[in-house]
Amino acid sequence: MTAQLIDGNALSKQLRTEVATRAQALKAKGVTPGLAVVLVGDNPASQVYVRNKVKACEDSGLHSVLEKYEATMTEADLLARVEALNNDPSIHGILVQLPLPAHIDAQKVIEAISPAKDVDGFHIASAGALMTGMPGFWPCTPYGCMKMLESIGYDLRGKHAVVIGRSNIVGKPMALMLLQKDATVTVAHSRTQNLKALTLQADVIVAAVGKRNVLTADMVKPGAVVLDVGMNRNDEGKLCGDVDFEGVKEVASHITPVPGGVGPMTITMLLVNTLEAAERASN
Ligand code: NAP
């Protein structure tokens, strides 16, 4: 079997068009959805990420502000900036780009963001809302994975999903989202024994590790859906995921490519969350 691709670029395009339409409707009511992106220091990867986020906002008709600060910025000054953005009515979403310089307590900064503007979904209140099924903001990467499953009309009820990775930003929220849709969820991590025995039982596999070839064809049940969150470099320096794409695509029913899979969906869901924040604020 050759798997069907779940095209993150195509799905993103569709969702971003919907965001632009809803943003227009809000503008007609006098509200322009606004995202503030805060970058501290000059991490090259972070600079690319924030540029892409700001550009995506502009392309979808959202207002965005990029605040760049020197790596020497103090924690107190950053907390003061977050507080000012919390109180700025033109800003509906606040994103502090991680990682932050070592002298700044990243969790403290995240907790300083108003939960109503926590469009990254990293605040403890957002995590609690996800856990209890209350309204809140879902972290963008696993939220994008859920949209990808939705796009193929996949019914998770009673299915066995295996999430490989248990980080607070991908693995754990992914598991909770799948559980909320009535999947039976197994979370694997670096101490998991016999990963292959688990993945071979899975109807859905989400790989979120950050290591190449964590998932190979012999570990996948024929017809399983495979979502690849990982971002790694291969020997030629090209972007690749955690999944051995060439092998697994012959076994899976659906698979996300890297690049062009989960990556573009992450930024798209940031736009969705920002729009949602603006809609909630305007109601
Ligand atoms: P992370 O915080 O480093 O977490 C990685 C997880 O993988 C940990 O839970 C770790 O287990 C587990 N792990 C490590 N080796 C393993 C192994 N051999 N078998 C099973 N599990 C193993 O990473 P993250 O932030 O979740 O990100 C994961 C990957 O997704 C990275 O490549 C990252 O770049 C990528 N990512 C992509 C996007 C996107 O937009 N496409 C967004 C976010 C992240 P322990 O907990 O036991 O250490």
TrEMBL record:
Catalytic activity, EC: 1.5.1.5, 3.5.4.9
Residue ranges constituting the Tetrahydrofolate dehydrogenase/cyclohydrolase catalytic domain according to the UniProt record: 6-120
InterPro entries tied to this protein: Aminoacid_DH-like_N_sf, NAD(P)-bd_dom_sf, THF_DH/CycHdrlase, THF_DH/CycHdrlase_cat_dom, THF_DH/CycHdrlase_CS, THF_DH/CycHdrlase_NAD-bd_dom
Domain Tetrahydrofolate dehydrogenase/cyclohydrolase NAD(P)-binding, first and last residues per copy: 139-281
Superkingdom field: Bacteria
SUPFAM superfamilies assigned: Aminoacid dehydrogenase-like, N-terminal domain, NAD(P)-binding Rossmann-fold domains
Keyword Transmembrane: no
Reaction catalysed by this enzyme: (6R)-5,10-methylene-5,6,7,8-tetrahydrofolate + NADP(+) = (6R)-5,10-methenyltetrahydrofolate + NADPH; (6R)-5,10-methenyltetrahydrofolate + H2O = (6R)-10-formyltetrahydrofolate + H(+)
Gene Ontology BP, a term: purine nucleotide biosynthetic process
Signal peptide residues on this chain, from the entry's feature table: none
GO cellular component labels: cytosol
Keywords annotated in UniProt: Amino-acid biosynthesis, Histidine biosynthesis, Hydrolase, Methionine biosynthesis, Multifunctional enzyme, NADP, One-carbon metabolism, Oxidoreductase, Purine biosynthesis
Subunit structure: Homodimer.
Entry similarity comment: Belongs to the tetrahydrofolate dehydrogenase/cyclohydrolase family.
Function: Catalyzes the oxidation of 5,10-methylenetetrahydrofolate to 5,10-methenyltetrahydrofolate and then the hydrolysis of 5,10-methenyltetrahydrofolate to 10-formyltetrahydrofolate.
Protein name: Bifunctional protein FolD
Gene: folD
